[in-house]
Amino acid sequence: MGIFKKSPPPHAVAVQTGLPASHPFSKLERYVPLSAPDYGLYRTMREAVPVLDAAVGKLTRLVGGFTTVCGDERAKAALDQFLHEVRVGAGGHGIETFVSAFLEQLLVNGTAVGEMVLDASRSDIYALYNAPLQELELRREDNPLQVTVCRREGMEAVPAPYQELILLAALNPEPGQATGTSLFRSLPFVTSILLKIYQTMGVNFDRVGNLRFAVTYKPQNDAVDKAFAKERAMQIAAEWSRAMDKNSTVKDFVAVGDVSIKVIGADNQILDTEVPVRQMLEQIVAKTGLPPFMLGLNWSTTERMSTQQADILTSELEAYRRCLTPVLEKICSLWLRLHGYGCPVTVDWDIINLQDEVEMARARLLRAQAAQIEETLENGAPLPDVTAENQKGE
Questions:
Q1: DSSP letters along 259-302, please?
Q2: 179, containing H or E segment
Q3: Beta strands 345-349 and 212-218: pairing type?
Q4: N or C terminus of the chain with fewer C-beta within 10 Å?
Q5: What are the tens digits of pLDDT across the range 262-305?
Q6: Quick one: pLDDT band at residue 130, thresholds 50, 70, 90?
Q7: Measured at the alpha carbon of residue 267, what is the angle toward residues 266 and 273, in degrees to the nearest 5?
Q8: How does DSSP classify residue 380?
Q9: How many Cα atoms sit within 13 Å of 214 on the Cβ side?
Q10: 18-22, 68-72, 137-141: least confidently modelled range
Q11: Contacts with 91 (C-beta within 8 Å, 6 or more apart), sequence order
């Protein structure tokens, strides 16, 4: 009978219905870059990492505004009024509102789709609409140069009946592809590591920063202490809970016997995360093309945009403008044709100026001094002391 003994019950078991310990954006960990772009993933990345959200907003604003150029002044005035008053979506108005949403969609998803909505009489553009990509599908036709925009209706993709009213733009498309490349394409892996670090920091501070105490009662060798050790331990636990109650005032804890109190986790040191976090942020900043200080990252006490950085950023913004120009010219051309104007129209973008205001003021001062010197030399008067004026201005 004693040969077959029952195995002792396990001291701990795994709970199969428990939630795994992970950061709230765990979708980034399951991302495998082998299929079509996951637009939901890119939105999650922008929501999870403030640097990405700030980069998209900064690039959208830095692209700047534009003016239209056409041969007929009457047509230009009417077109400018239309662009200023056109409805956008449900509650917006103005072409700037449409361009901002269109460019954000282009940067985040790599592809942007809009639509020109005509009025009931088909004689005017009633509104501009930014279409959500989750409800659309791009279909390749037999002609590789033709793409049809379809809307999803259940399990089917139905082509839009008026393709000429669709506004489509792709950012850096790969050869043979109709969709573009997102600005976030190479960042899911880096973002997942960054969020793991942030999640670990939060867990460590929750364990170490929110103090937990270990109260240990050591009974003496006499029989009385050994007999009532359990009762005294329960009494100490109850009094300790009362003393540490968050909803009550500060209380003192008094115990009799050999009682020791230690802070759990006080001897452990939290890992320094400054270096790995900076390495991940450097990869993100390099992908956006913006200087670090524009995103709130003051990595140097002498942080300042140099001429080389300004030129590189200007070239990036010019590339985004080249994607938007055909879309804007299509809107303007259709409006002019609907109103009987046959003049061609072009888009003239504002000059991108990223130079420091102090340097610009100093340049204007030097040009004014040069003009003053030339005028003085022409009149035969003695030259002014511009060195003293510069030192006084500084």
A1: EEEEEETTT--PPP-HHHHHHHHHHHHHHHT--GGGGT---STT
A2: none
A3: unpaired
A4: N
A5: 766 656 666 778 888 888 888 888 888 888 888 888 776 566 66
A6: very high
A7: 85
A8: T
A9: 8
A10: 18-22
A11: none
d(CA 258, CA 238) in angstroms, rounded, equals: 17
User: Residue 283: which of 57, 52, 23 has the closest Cα?
Assistant: 52
Residue (of 130, 133, 114) closest to 41 by Cα position: 133
**What is the residue whose two structure tokens read 């959500």?**
132
Question: Rounded to whole angstroms, how far apart are CA atoms 303 and 148?
Answer: 47
The single residue listed with the structure tokens 């055909």 is 326
Cα separations in angstroms, 313 against 105, 187, 296, 316: 20, 20, 17, 5
Beta strands in the chain (DSSP E): 66-70, 87-88, 92-93, 111-118, 125-130, 136-140, 147-153, 156-159, 166-170, 212-218, 258-264, 345-349
Report yes or no: 21 and 203 within 8 Å, Cβ to Cβ: yes
Q: For tokens 């956006």, name the residue.
A: 288
d(CA 236, CA 248): 18
Query: How far, in Å, CA of 196 to CA of 366, rounded?
Result: 53
Domain ranges of the chain: 27-210+269-355, 212-264, 358-394
pLDDT of residue 242: 74
Residue with tokens 């009385």: 224
Helix, strand, coil abundance in the chain, percent, nearest 5: 45, 15, 35
pLDDT of residue 78: 92
For residue 167, pLDDT beyond 80:
yes
Strand ranges (E), 284-382:
345-349
Which tokens belong to 19?
Answer: 């939630």
